[in-house]
Amino acid sequence: MESTAEGLQPRTFSVKLWPPSESTRLMLVERMTKNLSAECIFSRKYGILSKEEAHENAKRIEEVCFASAEEHFKKEPDGDGSSAVQLYAKETSKLMLEVLKKGPRTTEEPEAPVVDTPLEPADTVFDISGGKRAFIEAEEAKELLSPLTKPGNSYKRICFSNRSFGIGAANVAGPILESIKSQLTEVDISDFVAGRPEDEALDVMRIFSKALAGSVLSYLNISDNALGEKGVRAFTELLKSQGDLEELYVMNDGISEEAAKALSELIPSTEKLKVLHFHNNMTGDEGAMPIAEMVKRSPNLESFRCSATRIGSDGGVALAEALGTCTRLKKLDIRDNLFGVEAGVALSKTLPKLGGLVELYLSDLNLENEGTIAIVNVLKQSAPQLEVLEMAGNEITAKAAKAVAECLTAMQSLKKLTLAENELKDDGAVTIAKSLQEGHPDLKELDVSTNLFQRSGARCFAQAVTNKPGFVLLNINSNFISNKGVDEVKEILKGGKNSLEVLGPLDENDPEGDPEDGEDEEDGEDADDEEKDGDDNGDGGLGSKLQGLKVEEED
């Protein structure tokens, strides 16, 4: 290297960290998309986002955070931009967490602020939920909550989730919250007493309740606090003062019959409520009754989730009837309960009143054929605009396949269909697959795993999705598809508009197995007969396309 000429001063270089290059911003969007659509602790709790929805959220988050950081940078133009970069990263993480906690949404459903509404500027959100779950005591609380004590702060939304408050920390937080409660609109105190003894946890809840009483909230999340009746009543002052709630989350809270009664009794009005989520509680039939009363008083409800709550037939009937008042409902999630046929039939009588449904989750309700047929016969008339339909684990057999297929034919806006863990076999699989072959341009995911079908059903489902633009996932795992059948499925997918990447894993497929009862599908000849019967009946389409495929016996 040549030496510096004598008398010349060495050059100094200034490294600017802001703004990031366009390629860096695009890389961040892709990284966020991957993280938002990956399985994690939040996706297991709140549901996993599709790649399409994750990308939409990632793009919106990046744009909002870039704008916020850019504004910050303009105030310190002589700096190197490091503080802008820190703000950019910090706010991105916060908003990603919000999206994950909200779970998957449709564009019609205005539950997730990042997707559907303009985001508040960064300084209106105070969130300490990031990082590992940790206990908080008095001294740490003073430091952690100090931004809330600054005069003139404009915080409207606070999230204390994932931090466990003891009595000392609660006594610090109480006066601070009371001083700003008039400006608060959204409060998330989910999972904020984890690991505390019951008496201490109840005292902490009472302190927070008293501090926040009188605030006019539109959003309240008290999930993951093992409330039970005692916990609900510990929030008496807060709940009694909330007549303007639009979103209420009481998930994984041990909501028993008495707790449900207390909740229904304490909240003075749910008339403005748009989102009500009760997922994963011990409600049972008796607890379903007061919840049903709350639902009746919530005519503006758009999203109702009461999944995994141990509700049986009587409670299911009560809920089904109560939902008749919620004519603006867009998302209904009541999966993983013990409804049975009677509650399924009751629900079918309510569905015609819910003409705006976009997502419907009815998996694991013991509907059987009778309940399933009653529901799908109504849906084909009342909800042709449905985008998500899940009916897994309902003992649906080929006897109900014709009714299901007719319903699906009417649903041309479907994006996701789940019929896993039923008993369709080849006969039912072929019937349903044919209903999906024509149209359905927006279909992205199809899950028909664990349905006792063989080569014929597998090929039909592959034919049904192979030319759909934007299709993402075909799950035919845990069936009895021969090795040659698997090869044929792959060839069908390779020959269409979609690549082989849309085929999900087949690690639990049993190529040597037979359907459990073995009565009418022991060998491939029966599958041939089914296809021929379909052609003789003028079904054309799939049947004619399969004629050239040789079907061998399945052992």
Automatic annotation (TrEMBL):
**Which stretches make up the WPP domain?**
14-108
Compositionally biased spans, kind Acidic residues: 507-538
Which Pfam families does this chain map to? LRR_6, WPP
The superkingdom of the source organism is: Eukaryota
**Where in or outside the cell?**
Cytoplasm; Nucleus
Q: Does the keyword Cell membrane apply?
A: no
Q: Quick check: keyword Chaperone in the entry? A: no
According to its record, what are the GO cellular component terms?
A: cytoplasm; nucleus
Q: What InterPro entries does the record tag this protein with? A: Leu-rich_rpt (IPR001611), LRR_dom_sf (IPR032675), RanGAP1/2 (IPR045203), WPP_dom (IPR025265), WPP_sf (IPR038214)
Q: Where is this region: Disordered?
A: 500-555
Q: Which SUPFAM superfamilies match?
A: RNI-like
Entry keyword set:
Cytoplasm, Nucleus
> Where the protein is mainly located, per its record?
cytoplasm
- Protein name per Swiss-Prot or TrEMBL: WPP domain-containing protein
